[in-house]
Amino acid sequence: MALQTLEFEFKSANTQSISKEWSHHGVTGSGDMECLMEKKDLGGGVKAKVVTPVKGFDKVWEKMIGKFVADTGVGNVSIEINDDNATPIVVYMRLRQALAEATAKEAE
Amino acid sequence: MEYKGITREWDTLKKDTLARKKDAEQFVREGKIVDAKDAVALLETVIKPFDKVNIEGNNQKQADFLAKCLCQVDAKKVHDLHMVQSVLTLPEHLDVFEKGIAKKLDMSFSGPQAGRIAEFLKEGKLELGAIHTYLELYGRYFVDLTPRVALIAATMADKEGNLFTGFSTEDSPAIIEATKFRQGIVIAQVNEVVDKLPRIDIPADWVDYVIQSPKPFYIEPLFTRDPAMITDSQVLRGMMAIKGIYGEYQVESMNHGIGFDTAAIELLLPTYGEQLGLRGKICKNFILNPHPSLIPAIECGWVESVHCFGGELGMEDYVAARSDIFFVGPDGSMRSNRAFSQVAGHYAVDMFIGGTLQIDPYGNSSTATATRVAGFGGAPNMGCDPKGRRHSSGAWLKVGEEYGMGSEMWGPVHRGKRLVVQLQETFREKLAPGFVERLDAFDLAKNANLPIEPVMIYGDDLTHIVTEEGIAYLHKCRNMEERTAAIRGVAGFTEVGLKADPDQTRKLRELGIIKTAADLDIDVSKATRNMLAAKNVHDLVVWSKGLYNPPAKFRNW
Questions:
Q1: How far apart are the C-alpha atoms of B169 and B333, rounded to whole Å?
Q2: Domain B13-212 carries which CATH code?
């Protein structure tokens, strides 16, 4: 299965950033994806790189990650996603879970 | 004016039956027992061309031996049969058409044979009467589709022909009553012939022949959902439904669909439902097969009663040990009855909640695809607003009060409305969209030459759609335009959702017609499998205190 790489950039309200330098969440299993979030100075914006076997859903990726950025106001983050046929809501939920992990305080 | 009655014989059916049975006497060994080796010859003798014939095929229990035998009759002797049966599951159910033994079909549900039915229709091998709901078809057994011969399945018989249908009674009483009392012939395949039955479900004089089948009848564990397969997104929709619908309307009685979405809800009751303080307020009375995924909620004291359409493999001992909850016979085993359960599901519960393949912008939903005649089963009986209902309840009245077209359609009369809820992920696996501008049911109607599109739940009956984007409270809409906007507003990035007008969606949120997870104060990042009361089949066994005995294919420990 040929993989394709999609790259997106988003402007953000930048009301929050992640506390960890980087954070990893999820597994590239069937119907799922993994996500790496890295703190980066992007002038408040968000960059995303998606590696996926699914063709023809570029717009949906852009809209879903855009919705995540708009809903959370996260900024200065570089996101890398390795996807294996995750549905849009799985993408959104994994991003929200990844963000929760990346902003969590170190184990107390 | 002089009126004259006609002159005719008034008992031709009875005489014909007696004549057929006389010809078949040679096959009867003792009492009503016929040997399995004589089964084909028996069928050739008692079934005549053009007869209406029923092969008991339920969701679970199958008269599989008799179905095989019917395929082996000589098509020169037995042909042009009109099959009237609720479910076509086995290949033999269609082989009789391939072999020229049967010609016409009236049915409810065809699951695995759906593709072949469509093929046969196209090739002219099969003539389709109609696709019914279960209750409709049972009704027609007593009107114009009464079987002349019924081939049914029971667990045990005695030599006189009394039958024990036991845990999986399902369709048997409805079929046998219609057939026998219109002078028809009832042939039962049984797993065992015994001297004394645990209880008598069908009396011997309603049964003509009993055949011990070489193997026990086939039974499918159709309602077992492995909690390990439930996804986070199903947990999210489940939490949204529990808070935004079950809790909001205080829904006490319901039917759950067969899918993983409702299994997730069952497993969220002891955790999320408990957190919300809903125990004792919701989910008290179920019309439902004995879903293993309901065990934790039962064990935590949520459930007061469950009446079952059929049995479920592995749940026998658990159900028997919970006779306060399930309907259990004096012998200690459960009694299921699809006809009564469907009646209850139609009239007596406040909510149907399930899933579908496609929803259109009008709210019509369908599981039909262009090349499969799959039928409906019982879903439309429960997934509708029963117009004959006259008792009220809190949930039913609240939906009626909120009905946006109430004053226009009902005038000043106080009425309620059944909750009909679809849980839908905007994209399913392989990214198949759950919302489409035009249902595949239209293509199927054209391909299979059906007079009406096989729509499972009509849009005007649908009250709520739950997607990951939000809940659409469709019954609150004041007209079709608003309704369509509400559907688009929760349809995500499907072709239907992309046409949503963000301003209108915002207005609908202000009106409480759309509520997102955030509106319901649900933290999406917390919606994970950790919320489930059982995470795999083994957990269910533990919850059941060892009483649930899952089939081998669900055992991985």
A1: 11
A2: 3.40.1080.10
- Token pair of A68 as six digits: 């995540």
**Strand locations in B132-213 (E):** 149-157, 163-164, 185-193, 209-212
Q: What is the residue extent of each domain of chain B?
A: 13-212, 227-539
* DSSP secondary structure, B428-488, as one string: -GGG-BSB-SS-THHHHHHHTT-SS---SB-GGG--EEEETTEEEEGGG-SSHHHHHHHHH
- Span B310-352, pLDDT tens digits: 999 999 999 999 999 999 999 999 999 999 999 999 999 999 9
Distance CA A14, CA B1 (A): 94
Q: Which of B425, B524, B528 is closest, CB to CB, to A87?
A: B425
Cβ distance of A88 and B528 shorter than 8 Å: no
What is the C-alpha separation between B254 and B348, in angstroms, rounded?
Answer: 9
CATH of segment(s) B227-539: 3.40.1080.10
Instruction: Please list every residue in chain B whose beta carbon sits closer than 8 Å to the beta carbon of residue A61.
Output: none
The domain ranges of chain A are 4-103
Distance from CA of A20 to the nearest CA of B (A): 18
Over residues B170-189, the mean pLDDT reads: 98
* A interface test, pick of B229, B230, B233 with most A CB neighbours within 10 Å: B233
Note whether B54 and B150 are within 8 A (CB).
yes
Beta strands per DSSP E along B11-50: 28-30, 33-34
Identical fold for domains B13-212 and B227-539, yes or no, is yes
> Which residues on neighbouring strands pair with residue B128, listed in sequence order?
B105
* Residues of chain A positioned with their CB less than 8 A from the CB of B518: 71
Interchain CB distance below 8 Å, B468 and A57: no
Give the pTM.
Answer: 0.93
User: Closest to A88 (Cβ–Cβ): which among B232, B493, B527?
Assistant: B493
Residue B343 CB neighbours (<10 A): 16
Q: Give the 3-state secondary structure percentages of chain B, helix then strand then coil, rounded to 5.
A: 40, 20, 45
Distance CA B97, CA B467 (A): 41
The answer to whether residue B447 scores a pLDDT higher than 60 is: yes
Q: Extract the residue ranges of chain A whose pLDDT is less than 50.
A: 107-108
Which stretch of A54-58, B127-131, B447-451, B534-538 has the lowest confidence by average pLDDT?
B447-451
